[in-house]
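lol so apparently i was supposed to do this last week
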Amino acid sequence: MKYKLIMVFILITLPFNIFGDSKKALFLYDMFDDESELYINMIRQSFDLINLPYDEVALEVGDVPDFSLYDRVFIYGKVMAFNLKSPIRDWLKTRPSLKGPDIYLLLTANRWFIDKYTRQISELTKENGGIVVDAVSSATKDLSDEEKRGLVSSLFSGFQ
Ligand SMILES: Cc1cc2nc3c(=O)[nH]c(=O)nc-3n(C[C@H](O)[C@H](O)[C@H](O)COP(=O)(O)O)c2cc1C
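anyway here it is w/ flavin mononucleotide bound
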């Protein structure tokens, strides 16, 4: 009898488990290159660790899918060329609607322009209707790989 009740409970709740939390996360970054590789791989590992399905797009080459398909969006961007180059910023300037998902930002620079870049990305995100739930921004010049990993972990610790 006890097992029958458990089976009935599982059968009743199964559709909710399958369909209730069906949205995925979206991971956006500028491009995959030597400087980004560490961060992109750490972010991929963080998704896998918490079994969070996700799509990813390198903005330099790919188009961003419909935001309504996602409940969380992670954006990793870095300062390039004295802050003159940024596929993420270029995309934000096209005024995409960012309404809907919670947005998480990880922004790095080796040393220069990180504050200005962070301000620009944060403001453009908000102007496009995005809600930034958490943002980590850091100059990385003096950081070890372990400390860089800590930047990613602190971003992911917010919603587990
Ligand atoms: C083409 C290119 C240009 C860059 N220009 C700058 C820059 O103007 N200022 C800066 O602080 N970092 C610059 N960087 C460094 C990246 O921001 C840095 O590599 C990235 O944030 C990752 O940090 P890490 O390599 O220290 O881990 C540049 C990197 C590349 C690939």
